[in-house]
């Protein structure tokens, strides 16, 4: 069965399990669920889903994530026909509404909060309608604007659905406040009057009670009825009989359900006799007391009403949403509705020239609504909860419409349009008669400046590049762009990161839009702006092929030129002057300042980003944290912060700073002046990132004094050497040579490493011993010469590495590493990952993988063998790649058989990937790792 058919059959199988009653809330399947169930890559699933939707075989529910449902199954459940075109709905409620199936058995279904904060009130209302023989008279109590009138109408609709009222039954509304100052006229209006009942009563007239016969009489602000009017109402409730004003006997009859509404306390505003006659009192909670999710739903609904009026989508900024919700007070829904109407009217006027949508921005809000943002900010819990629901601008479209928001990536205000930059510049230069060769040079320079300036303007330590992009372009496009960015970084071995990701995502969005509309890519004059034999041009061609494979469209040659321009312009190498920031924090009034001052003088440099934080003993940790955060916020810390602290609370502020400032932070304790000097030296090494510096400093033990005479002429003046042995002296021996050199480098020793073969081994060793003092031999066979020998398998399992380190350091200083160095493991893992990883750079992730290894061993309290460690770390590196490419594995073994202690240890250790790389390892991968241990 073809892949698309497999996916469709699975969706159909799951869709047919639904009943009509289950069609509410979240329905359908998303791409990730389908990918996991069928063991297909998510990208492939998404492609097939789009094709199935285009064919009209499945229905799409927009949202996050997008969900899908079998079209035939849905039409059958709703007894409808969606027509020939592909169907997309906001949610199942909109689908039911447009198909004429608005929960006909329950009009309360669309009342926001009916199944949450208003659940009890809805049950009361239903009981009042259904209670035999003719229902229960009801009083609805609530503040102005909470929706009492709407609730009364829903009760009436429910009564019609349940056949307690005829289809043509009347619903009569009367506001008792209208005639508050004239009780006689008020009673006349409700019950009617006869001719001559009062001055001006020239003829008899029926009242509202008679008009409402067979239906509902809704008396709003019922507390405004005078006592005599209340008496007439409760008598009517008791007997069903009444008299018009001026009549002496109650000989008239009507069958009317009375629903009253009041903003006052019934016990104080109404007579006790009247209140006793109303057995069902429903209290509607004020909007301010309802859940945050309900407030947001009401906000969306009100904006949807306005979107329907203006026939355009409405885009509301995050700050505006927060301010509107924070401004909810005594006016409740009514006041919120008025505020939204006013804002939409102003937004409509401001965006009269925008045919695509109107925008509500924070600047437009009146002062009383803006204050709502401050009100909400004071409630940290509410603010945090709201952020979960609203992390990007809210876009509300008219119900049922096929409206398309304008792609911001093509705009100039918030977006990026490389085509426009080139078009404008080329047109201007051509108009000035500039030669084509010079135009190419100028365009390349302009694009370079434009890309850098664009990213620098958009950069914010409080928002990641991905978060900024998701405000502008689709998530799937950002996912693909991230893969391209990682591919380029590895392919070109350059620091293409945020700037390229930002520029490429926006440019790709603009290119896809042009391709969709069959619009030609402009200006072939830029051909040659980037040399054809350059690496940027070659990689641009590779990216073009990746785009073609992913989006199934043809990428023209001049588009390759644009991509090459981006590669050349967005390189982060020119940011090499921006370095990791060192923060020295110690207890005492001037300890940190003094240490930093000494280090700067010894290092002969004031250029390193290094700051000192002194913590006098009488100052609290929170004050120091605030001070430190303020200092770092004023600096450019995009490359991260390395904290060198002495002890206590200063060692624990790193995580809080990272969370608050959204920057990577690593912490080392037991700070000393040599440690600060070494950190400054490593920060000044070009290209050394935060993790690399952190890992290299963890094993730093200070600068040792060495007898230089002994160093230069050990053991009578002969230089020292280590021999690596394999069958030929070429392949494996050269590989061993590299591993041994890494161990020597880590130990701080310079020593010759000489590979030899098994053929004439002893003779070759004899020759070497005339020139070198052989410290040890490493390899496949132990030589007869009386020298220390480390077998190959011992070097691999870890013990040989430790022995070799002790041998080369024995004559210098006894060093006991704080942590096993695992250099052999690291080297072998890195080489293995080079073969498996496409997007991640093994050299960049090895430091984090080794930290994972350290945490795992520490939590388990055991030492893993090196072969097991290598298998585990290679699996872990591949798991990180699977997270990036969104192609997870599914653990199909019996999870109940896994050791819970190992599972817990792995869960704890994998947090390092979330903390440093922002990659979260799922439970299936954790099960695989626990099973390996």
State the main characteristics.
single chain; 933 residues; alpha/beta; five-stranded parallel beta sheet; four-stranded mixed beta sheet; 41 helices
Task: Tell me what you see in this structure.
The chain is 51% helix and 11% strand. The protein is of the alpha/beta class and 933 residues long. The chain has a five-stranded parallel beta sheet. Strands 1-3-2-4 form a four-stranded mixed beta sheet. Helix 19 (436-458) crosses helix 24 and helix 23 (535-551) crosses helix 24. The longest helix is centred in the middle third of the chain and has 23 residues, at 436-458. It is elongated. The two termini are 38 Å apart.
Task: Chart the SSEs and their pairings.
Blueprint: H1 3-15, E1 29-30, H2 31-38, H3 42-54, E2 58-61, E3 67-70, H4 71-78, E4 88-89, H5 92-98, H6 119-130, E5 138-141, H7 148-161, E6 171-175, H8 183-191, E7 192-193, E8 205-206, H9 208-211, E9 216-220, H10 227-239, E10 241-242, E11 252-253, E12 257-262, H11 266-269, H12 272-276, E13 280-283, H13 292-310, E14 314-316, H14 318-326, H15 332-350, E15 358-360, H16 367-378, H17 380-389, E16 394-396, H18 418-431, H19 436-458, H20 465-470, H21 475-492, H22 498-516, H23 535-551, H24 557-569, E17 581-587, H25 591-603, E18 610-615, H26 621-633, E19 641-645, H27 653-661, E20 665-668, H28 673-683, H29 690-698, H30 708-712, H31 714-717, E21 720-726, H32 731-747, E22 752-757, H33 761-771, E23 773-779, E24 789-791, H34 792-797, H35 799-809, H36 823-836, H37 842-860, H38 866-885, H39 900-909, H40 911-917, H41 923-932
Parallel strand pairs: 2-4, 5-12, 5-13, 6-9, 9-12, 14-15, 17-18, 17-19, 19-20, 21-22, 21-23, 23-24
Antiparallel strand pairs: 1-3, 2-3, 7-8, 10-11, 14-16
């Amino acid at each position: 069965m073809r892949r698309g058919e497999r996916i469709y059959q699975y969706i159909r199988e799951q869709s047919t399990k639904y009943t009509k009653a289950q069609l509410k809330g979240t329905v359908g399947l998303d791409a990730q669920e389908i990918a996991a169930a069928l063991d297909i890559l998510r990208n492939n699933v998404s492609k097939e889903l789009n094709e199935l939707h285009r064919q009209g075989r499945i229905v799409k529910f927009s949202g996050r994530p997008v969900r899908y449902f079998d079209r035939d199954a849905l039409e059958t459940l709703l007894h409808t026909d969606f027509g020939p075109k592909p169907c997309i709905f906001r949610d199942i409620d909109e689908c039911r509404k447009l198909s004429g199936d608005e929960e006909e058995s329950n009009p309360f279904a669309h009342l926001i909060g009916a199944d949450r904060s208003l659940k009890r009130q809805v049950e009361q209302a239903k009981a009042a309608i259904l209670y035999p023989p003719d229902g229960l008279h009801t009083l609805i109590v609530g503040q102005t604007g909470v929706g009492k009138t709407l609730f009364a109408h829903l009760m009436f609709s429910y009564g019609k659905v349940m056949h307690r009222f005829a289809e043509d039954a009347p619903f009569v509304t009367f506001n008792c406040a209208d005639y508050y100052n004239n009780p006689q006229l008020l009673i006349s209006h409700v019950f009617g009057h006869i001719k001559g009942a009062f001055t001006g009563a020239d003829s008899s007239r029926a009242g509202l009670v008679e008009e409402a016969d067979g239906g509902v009489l809704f008396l709003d602000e019922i507390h405004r009825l005078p006592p005599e009017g209340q008496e007439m109402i409760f008598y009517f409730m008791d007997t069903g009989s009444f008299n018009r004003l001026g009549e002496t006997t109650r000989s008239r009859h009507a069958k009317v359900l009375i629903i009253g509404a009041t903003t006052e306390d019934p016990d104080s505003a109404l007579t006790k006799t009247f209140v006793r006659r109303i057995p069902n009192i429903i209290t509607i909670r004020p909007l301010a007391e309802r859940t945050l999710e309900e407030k947001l739903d009401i906000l969306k609904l009100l904006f949807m009403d306005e979107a329907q009026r203006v026939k355009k989508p409405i885009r509301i900024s995050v700050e505006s949403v927060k301010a509107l919700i924070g401004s909810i007070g005594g006016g409740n829904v009514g006041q919120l509705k008025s505020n939204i109407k006013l804002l939409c009217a102003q937004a409509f006027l401001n965006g009269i020239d925008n045919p695509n949508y109107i925008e509500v921005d924070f600047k437009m809000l009146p002062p009383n609504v803006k204050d709502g943002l401050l009100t909400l900010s004071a409630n940290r819990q509410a603010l945090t909860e709201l952020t979960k629901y609203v992390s990007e601008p809210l876009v509300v479209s008219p119900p049922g419409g096929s409206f398309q928001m304008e792609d911001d990536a093509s705009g100039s205000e918030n977006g990026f349009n490389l085509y426009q930059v080139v078009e404008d510049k080329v047109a201007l230069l051509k108009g000035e008669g500039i030669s084509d060769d010079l135009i190419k040079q100028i365009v390349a320079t302009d694009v370079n400046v434009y890309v850098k300036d664009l990213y620098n303007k958009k950069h914010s330590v409080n928002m990641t590049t991905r978060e900024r992009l998701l405000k502008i372009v689709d998530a799937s496009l950002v996912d693909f762009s991230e893969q391209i960015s990682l591919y380029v970084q590895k392919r070109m071995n350059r620091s293409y990161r945020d700037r390229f990701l930002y520029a490429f995502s926006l440019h790709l969005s603009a290119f896809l839009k042009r391709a969709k509309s069959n619009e030609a890519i402009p200006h072939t004059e830029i051909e040659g702006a980037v040399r054809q034999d350059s690496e940027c041009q070659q990689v641009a061609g590779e990216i073009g092929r990746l785009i073609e494979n992913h989006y199934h469209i043809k990428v023209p040659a001049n588009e390759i030129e644009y991509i090459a321009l981006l590669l050349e312009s967005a390189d982060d190498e020119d940011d090499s002057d921006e370095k990791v920031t060192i923060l020295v924090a110690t207890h005492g009034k001037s300890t940190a300042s003094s240490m930093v001052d000494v280090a700067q003088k010894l290092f002969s440099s004031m250029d390193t980003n290094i700051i000192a934080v002194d913590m006098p003993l009488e100052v609290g940790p929170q004050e120091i944290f605030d001070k430190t955060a303020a200092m770092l916020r004023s600096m450019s810390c995009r490359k991260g912060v390395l904290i060198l602290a002495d002890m206590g609370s200063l060692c624990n502020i790193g995580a809080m700073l990272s969370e608050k400032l959204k920057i990577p932070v690593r912490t080392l304790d037991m700070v000393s002046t040599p440690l600060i000097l070494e950190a400054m030296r490593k920060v000044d090494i070009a290209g050394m990132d935060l993790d690399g510096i952190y890992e290299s400093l963890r094993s730093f033990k200070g600068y040792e004094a060495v007898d230089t005479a002994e160093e230069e002429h050990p053991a009578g003046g002969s230089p020292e050497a280590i021999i690596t042995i394999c069958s030929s002296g070429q392949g494996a021996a050269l590989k061993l040579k590299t591993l041994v050199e890494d161990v020597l480098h880590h130990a701080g020793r310079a020593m010759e490493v000489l590979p030899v073969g098994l053929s004439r081994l002893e003779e070759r060793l004899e020759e070497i011993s005339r020139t070198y003092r052989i410290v040890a031999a490493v390899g496949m066979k132990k030589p007869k010469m009386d020298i220390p020998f480390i077998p190959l398998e011992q070097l691999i399992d870890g013990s040989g590495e430790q022995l070799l380190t002790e041998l080369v350091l024995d004559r210098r200083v006894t060093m006991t590493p704080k942590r096993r160095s695992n250099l052999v493991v690291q080297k072998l893992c890195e080489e293995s990952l080079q073969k498996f990883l496409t997007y991640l750079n093994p050299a960049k992730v090895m430091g984090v993988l080794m930290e994972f290894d350290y945490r795992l061993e520490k939590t388990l309290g055991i030492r893993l063998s090196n072969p097991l460690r290598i298998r585990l770390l290679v699996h872990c590196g591949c798991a990180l790649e699977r997270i990036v490419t969104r192609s997870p594995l599914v653990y199909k073994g019996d999870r109940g058989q896994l050791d819970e202690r190992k599972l817990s240890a792995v869960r704890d250790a994998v947090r390092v990937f979330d903390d440093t790389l922002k990659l979260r390892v799922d439970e299936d991968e954790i099960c695989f790792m626990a099973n390996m241990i």
